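Please, structure for the following, as tokens.
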Amino acid sequence: MKTLTCHAWPRRTATLLLASALLGCSHWPSTLPQPAVNTRGIDETVRLAMDATGARGLAVSVVDDGQVVFTRAYGVRNATGDPLLEDTVMYGASLTKAAFAYVVMQLVEEGKLGLDVPIERYLPQPLPSYASPDIVRRYSAFSGLASDERWRRLTPRMLLTHSGGFANFYFLEPDQQLRIHFEPGSRYAYSGDGLILLQFVLEQGLGMDVGAEMHRRVFAPNGMTRTSLIWRPDFRPNLADGFTLDGRPEPHDERSRVRAAGSMDTSIADMGRLAASLVRGDGLSAAARNELTRSQLAITTRSQFPSFQPPLAPPPFQALGAALGVIAFKGPQGSGFFKGGHNDSTANMWVCIEAKKRCVVILSNDVRAEPAFPALVQSILGDTGLPWAWEYGDMKFWWPTR
């Protein structure tokens, strides 16, 4: 297999830095130059990665200095072999959370929402009293909180930093009722239900339509014509199905409900535009933009999943923290943030380096692509210091060899 060259650094230095990133070392040499973004080798690196992992489809967009400089799709979008294109609609999965947080921060700056205002102040009745089957179907089983007054202390900041104390989703609980497992705001534990609760506050408490609000504030202004939080029939002619770990095709889910935790359909072209807009901070002041992606709560677990791992001291990954809808980190190029997205047939990753407004977005309709993500990001941005072992646990990563 062809060797992947590491631009701007000698190979030995780059290899050591990659190992440090995977192990969680935070002691970065202070004299490393910031590498130039490399788009020349993306085609070959993607080819090698897809050959090695068996991934059938993958798409990449690159942002430099806040502008999209590269967008390309590779492979196929379905089992019949139709090509994956730059405007093919793919499942955004949990990248939805980052887009939702971007919109929430705009609402905060406009004074419509307070990050540290308890959510009970926005609701006309106590949260556990919203218990109709329609509420459960659309949002979550809030009645499970009736005996726990800690729900009154929940704030938008806690929900966006995954520190509300919830499991990922209420239906994972033994009795399928939402529960608070630790003091709100005290630690990180990944929870889609936390963001769905914030969606509920915006819609039921403030009278907003989150899907329409995201379209108006982010998707339409950035020309994201192939992006929506709810299924659109016009997506069907150019739509990506997925591929599971065993290579089995998985039909694209036509999601009928807006879900702030993960219902976004999008394309790689649109996601590049979104990454550029967010890293520039369009629609936000400099202070609000910084608030969106700064580390606000230290993460002290060995990996992201399972959610309720015991906190470790010292933290296994230094300078890793929860930001609003994304994860903040520091590496040899300074501060950055990232957000992954995953289901049984989807693998997505969004990584940005703050210093020069650089991002890589990877969308794959084949979950087998994930082991190649560190090498793909490294080949474009140089070493970022992103703690891949926290994001993916014990996964064995692919790396080109001589």
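Residues 95-109 form the longest helix (15 residues). The longest strand covers residues 334-343.
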